[in-house]
Amino acid sequence: MANPSVASAPGPSSTVGPILARGERSLFLLLGSGLLLLVLVAALRPPGLAPFAVREVLFVLGCGLIGVGVVRKLQTPGWEFPERVQKAAVVSFVAAVATILAVLGYQPEATFGLPSNWGSARLFLGAVAILAFGSMVLILLPTTVRKIVLVLWVFFHFGGMFTSFSSIDPPNAIGPYLSKHLWTYVYRPYLQVIYLTNAYHFYSPDPGPPALLWFAVHYDDGTYQWIRIPNREIPAIGMHYQRLLAMPEHCFTPNPRFPLTRAEVAGLRQDQYPEEQIWENILERRERGSKIRYPLPRRQAQGEKSSYIPYLADVDFPVQYRAPNDTSKKIIASIAKRVLKTAPKREGAKPTHVRMYRVIQQMLTPYEIAQGKSPIEPTKFLPYFLGEFDEEGQLVDPTDPFLYWLVPILVVPANYPNHGLTTPNGAPLVLTRILPPPPNKELDGLEMHAAGPIKEN
Amino acid sequence: MAALTEKSTGWRGIIQALDRFWFTPTDPTPLACIRIVAGLVIFYIHLCYSWDLLGYVGPDGWIDRQLSLYIRNDIDIHRYGLAWDDLPQKISNGNYFWSPYFEVEDPVCIWVIHSGFLTAMLLFALGLWTPYTGFVSWVGLMAYVQKATVTLYGVDTMMSIVLLYLQMGPSGAVYSLDRWLAVRAARRQGLPPPPVEPSVSANFALRLIQFHFAFIYFASGTSKLLGSTWWSGTSLNYVLLNAAFAPMHWPPYYNLLSLLAKERWIWELLTSAAIVGTLLLELCFIFLVWDRRWTWLLVAGATCLHLGIGLIMGLTTFSMMMFAMLISFIPPEILKALINDIVGRAGWSKTSPQPA
Questions:
Q1: How are beta strands A429-430 and A311-312 bridged, if at all?
Q2: Which distant-in-sequence residues (6+ apart) come within 8 Å of B317 by Cβ?
Q3: CA distance A207 to chain B (A)
């Protein structure tokens, strides 16, 4: 128990004051130990030096300690110039540490800094460094100037939102020149780091029909099973359903250019434009596909066991053929690989490959709903074949006749394929815009195609 | 004082208006309410990642590790031509994406990180160690949106907006465990509860949320004007009859639509009214919401719009985030009166911390 009179008596310590006040001691302890941990992370850079996840844990701890120190300092009362200088000094410490660690890590041959494969940590620290330098300046500025700088930042920030919104191409045109270049050179890094890249074109210019992903997973016993994403019939929490519903949209960006014709590629070398991607060849393969026999689903097999997937005469090619761009092809392959990997297991059978379809679900019209038509009427689905993939996510046949083509589910004359309409090369042809008069029948090209062609003996 | 209060015109007036708009100290109550509503929704949304965590962010997920690194580091970035005769050119590689899930492959580590983020998000919603848990929550949000890019939709953007701006103000100053701890500590020392002062940062954060919300409506409304279905009066058909979103499989919903569609004029009247209402609301919001005479009407309209989106399209979490942002338009005194009323009815008034 201290004697109050002694404790309050003036002594050497109270006249000179402690070297560091209690709050400052803890601040230096936090910053110092945080820095020490980060130095340790940087020093343990050579592979094999640190056991599993040690560096990662040290990195998080180091950043955390420094962060706590900075927030505590910024929360201390006082906003006069000397206090602002102290706060700015602490923030500049963060900026310096973040810069050193992030920049040093960019050198592949560096022996100090974050490992070169820690891309996320380097980007994070780079952003922290910029933020800390900016905050340091902001803290030191007089109030009026600080307000002006903040308002300018607000203009810059919402300028980014406007750029993001206006750089989207309007229908049948290209977006504004200034927005495009502001986006590319100024705002892309800033907005991507904080994920504010949305253009806010909700349900616009026009809301469209939903897209779904369907997979026919084939097993080594010759059977196949459908997996549908998303699937309302499988009970799942709403959030999971909504996320899966977003996947068909994000995985498919159409190739901006329709395949070139033979005349258009004249003069190009084959490595510049492969022969199999020339439009005439794609079309020829598609027509050939309509001459291949596929098994009919049981519900449609009335006497005959197989039939042909028809060639569509009256649907524009850009509607029938929708190829994804190169990045989408990679995403599609990755999704197919995951579906195959997580496909339901069956006793004695192993999944071997998967046929993937992007299905546009056309909506009922108000007139059809008034008539009581079902929203899951099969002919309302427009399936596009995205390819057959193996366990490694490799496209099995890049020259598949139906690759990226609409595989129709439609009503055909009852005597199809002997209804008298064929292409000049003998492939059965149907018209889709006019419903064939009775007697007619439904032909599920998707189910036929998913089962795979009948192997000729 | 008179010089400050009298309305100026010209540049001086604009500067004073900007100063008032962005830097007038404000009660942090709306910010705290946004933290609670948005924080709980954000926690729930991230909890739902647990359903298929490794599918979303694992090395063999929907986007496997090799592809996600390709998208981040190697994908070609092109620009349009700069001069009249300039062709599009490749200018760089990769995107500015960052997430621990790019680097971590071990499933146990992924689950540990996920649990850490969930804990931070829950604590942030409850208002414990708010500056720290808020920042970790934002880092957590980024960890998912920057990695699981094929499963994102509007709600992720709304979460990014709200969490970013909540970092800039004292969202834990009231209705939080931080406040409860501060009051308890003061009581133990025999001191009165520390006052909750109006702050400039609370106003700045609230204004950012308000303006961003208004901008979203403006962007959404003007881009709809380019669409033919919004002019032909058929756009709402694509919303109401969309079987992937709307509950078409639910007989009462289907039967109601069927009944309405039996008389074309009724259907057209209802959908046209909804279309005109949506367009008017989205286009006018950014211009009129700052005038108190219009604020309530516009906030009520936006509430109805998002109620409809939540109920019909199943986008409930998205609508909840929009509701959280709408709180920023409610004056603090009304919000406090409403909360005090609820607290009083529930009989919690003795333990509830009251802002000054």
A1: parallel
A2: A238, A239, A242, B41, B44, B45, B155
A3: 6
> What is the least distance, in Å, from the CA of A78 to any CA of chain B?
14
Give A440-449 pLDDT, tens digit per residue.
888 999 999 9
Looking up tokens 């099969």 gives A378
pLDDT at A333 over 60: yes
pLDDT for B328 beyond 60:
yes
The answer to whether the beta carbons of residues B149 and A250 sit under 8 Å apart is yes
Query: Is the pLDDT assigned to residue A13 strictly greater than 70?
Result: no
The band of A110, judged by pLDDT with boundaries at 50, 70 and 90, is: low
pLDDT digits (tens, 9 = 90+) for B76-113: 998 888 888 888 889 999 999 999 999 888 999 999 99
Chain B: closest CA distance from residue A5 (Å): 23
Tell me which chain B residues have a C-beta less than 8 angstroms from the C-beta of A123: 96-98
Give yes or no for B276 touching A (CB within 8 A). no
Both structure tokens of A456: 């000729």
How deeply is A384 buried, as exposed, middle or buried, from its count of CB atoms within 10 A (0-12, 13-18, 19+)?
buried
CA distances from A181 to A62, A249, B93, B99, B219 (A): 39, 26, 16, 27, 19
Quote the strand ranges of A159-223, DSSP E: 211-219
- What's the mean pLDDT when you consider all of chain A? 86
Distance from CA of B327 to the nearest CA of A (A): 20
As a whole-number percent, the residues of chain A with pLDDT over 70 amount to: 88
Do residue A236 and residue B99 have CB atoms under 8 angstroms apart?
no
Is residue B194 within 8 A of residue B17, CB to CB? The reply is no
Q: Do A243 and B67 touch (CB under 8 A)?
A: no
Which of A199, A428, A192, A188 lies closest to A308, judged by CA? Answer: A428
Q: Encode pLDDT of B31-75 as tens digits.
A: 999 999 999 999 999 999 998 999 999 999 999 999 999 999 999
From the CB of residue A142, how many other CB atoms can be counted at a distance below 10 Å? 10
- What own/partner pairs with CB < 8 Å and gap ≥ 24 does A19-26 have? A23/A72, A23/A76, A26/A72
CA–CA distance, B153 with B141 (Å, rounded to integer):
13
CA distances from A307 to A415, A448, A449 (A): 11, 8, 11
Beta bridge partners of A405: A321
From the candidates B14, B21, B80, B211, which should be mutated to test the interface with A, based on the most A CB atoms within 10 A? Answer: B80
User: Quick one: closest CA in B to A246, which residue?
Assistant: B151
CA-based end-to-end distance of chain A: 102
Nearest CB to B102 within list A120, A151, A370: A120
- Count helices and strands (H / E) in chain A: 15, 10
- From chain A, pick out residues whose CB is under 8 angstroms from the CB of B211: 154, 158
The per-residue pLDDT for A3 is 40
The bridge status of strand B89-93 relative to strand A440-444 is unpaired
Confirm or reject contact between A361 and chain B (CB < 8 A).
Answer: yes
Q: Smallest Cβ distance to B98: which of A123, A200, A327?
A: A123
Instruction: Kindly state whether B22 is in contact with chain A, defined as any CB-CB distance less than 8 angstroms.
Output: yes
Average pLDDT over residues A274-293: 93
Most confident among A88-92, A129-133, A307-311, B161-165 (mean pLDDT):
B161-165
Element (H, E) at A412: strand A409-413
Reported as a pLDDT band with limits 50, 70 and 90, residue B232 is very high
Instruction: Round to whole Å and give the CA distance between A227 and A377.
Output: 18
From the list A181, A238, A250, the residue facing B79 with the nearest CB is A181
CA-wise closest residue to A117 among A108, A126, A125, A109: A108
- Report the candidate in A429, A450, A181, A139 with the shortest Cα–Cα distance to residue A310: A429
Q: How does pLDDT run across B264-296, given as a tens digit for each residue?
A: 999 999 999 999 999 999 999 999 999 999 999
